[in-house]
Amino acid sequence: MGVMKEFHRNGVGRQLVEKAKEVAKAQGYEFMQVKTVKMGMYKDYDRTNLFYISCGFKELEVFPLLWDEANPCQIYVMAL
């Protein structure tokens, strides 16, 4: 899931994360996970990484070849 660039910085992404947390908790989940491209690869994805961090996600692990060498997969997690 993502938010189109013209809607960035308007609270839409944060609302989506909060709703996803609410639904996950209601279904009994204890953790949430997101995947994106590792910080430092592309400016657009750096902004995505910073957004996830600002929402309270913590870095868990990077899988350098999950997608391909040019797009190392960063996994963030959050306890619910």
DSSP strand tally: 3
Query: What proportion strand?
Result: 25-35%
Helix content: 25-40%
Query: How is the main sheet built?
Result: 3 strands, antiparallel
Shape: globular
Question: Short summary of the structure?
Answer:
The protein has 80 residues and is of the alpha+beta class.
How would you describe this protein?
- The chain contains two helices and three strands; from the N terminus they run αβαββ.
- The mean pLDDT is 95.
- The chain has a three-stranded antiparallel sheet.
- The longest helix is centred in the N-terminal third of the chain and has 15 residues, at 12-26.
- It is globular.
- By secondary structure, it is an alpha+beta fold.
- β2 and β3 (71-79) form a beta hairpin.
Task: Note the topology.
Layout: H1 12-26, E1 31-37, H2 43-54, E2 58-68, E3 71-79
Antiparallel strand pairs: 1-3, 2-3
Which descriptors would you attach to this protein?
80 residues, three-stranded antiparallel sheet, globular, 34% strand, alpha+beta, 2 helices
